[in-house]
Amino acid sequence: MDSTSKPIPENWARPFFTIWTGQALSLFGSSLVQFALVWWLTKETGSATVLATATLVALLPQIVFGPFIGALVDRWNRRLIMIVADGSIALATAFLFYLFAAGQVQIWHIYVVMFIRSLGTAFHSPAMTSSTSLMVPDKHLARLAGANQLLQGLVGIAAPPLGALLLEAFSTENVLLIDITTAMLAILPLLFIPVPQPARGALQERSTYWEDLREGFHYVVRWRGLLGVTILAMILNFIITPSSALLPLVITKIFNGGAQELGWSEALFGIGMIAGGILLGAWGGFKRRIITSLCGVIGIGIGCVMTGLVPADKFYILLTANFIIGFMQVFANGPLMAILQSTVAPDKQGRVFSLLGAGATAMMPLSLLVSGPIADQFGIRFWFIFGGAVFILMTFIAFFVPAIMNIENNHEAALTPVVE
Fold it and tell me: Which fold has domain 13-140+150-212?
């Protein structure tokens, strides 16, 4: 039974990547289903309100429940959490398969299933992320982060066109079967491969859920470097989220383009992520991983400013900007994740990753509400210029904040017990 943390064995790669491959297949299946459900809502209703509601429903569990789920991830068996989360997502999709096959599906059914799938992800993501640091040696975490970014880029490029192709060839319910199958493939390795649990001291064993929850908040607040990075990530996510939402308007209104031009723009973003993932996986980044991450943020800012300033007759520059954003996003996110996995106490990673994810996700609907009126008032491309400039400025400021620059070495204060 995996009740304590153990040294990482030399043959760590085989068991870990067996689990990782199953999770990668599940991610691809989930992306196909997400595309299929959004397309079905689009075709059946043609309503922007319905699509916006679906997006909000998919975000709410991670925003509302995320901060509370982390403490459960740190208390419960993480392997069991991943099995139950994947299984719940598969059961919800199977129920939707039945409704489609019976011709009884309604819009609210889609909402409910999206909510359940998102809730399962809210449990699964921090469980998998926090387990990684107990299964992978520290020196390989940055390269693994590059591989994860590479995977996201591949899925981002392949899932939409393949989903469209499958929907042309098969019914929606048959596409749902793919997700059920890939979820089973994700669960199968977890039934046989142990996932290490972090060691919990005698005091922690006697603590209540609410004491663990409070301790997680204190841990983030006391660690000034982590708090600074969390605030930085929230602000940057607030700025970058509207960019993808406004890009179609930039394509149509500024460049007089259509679906093909938008497709090329999104493809170049995905290709950039793939290229960045390959490079980060091979290189691993600078020795001080925070420098790699901040340089990535500056690169994203440059890409955003380029998008806002490129002349209307230079579409190829827009494609270049999208490639840069995708490429540099890998270096912004990957090393930061490696930093947290290697420095956050293993028994607190569930809470930290859940809090960080909830805070970043909460910025998405808020920024969409704010960016729309601003873009209407000052022009579509103003947000890209403004956001990119803020990216660059905030990152330069971060270079002069010792707590952030020394985040890999200044976490001792977070381990100090709270004095009542």
Answer: Growth Hormone; Chain: A; (1.20.1250)
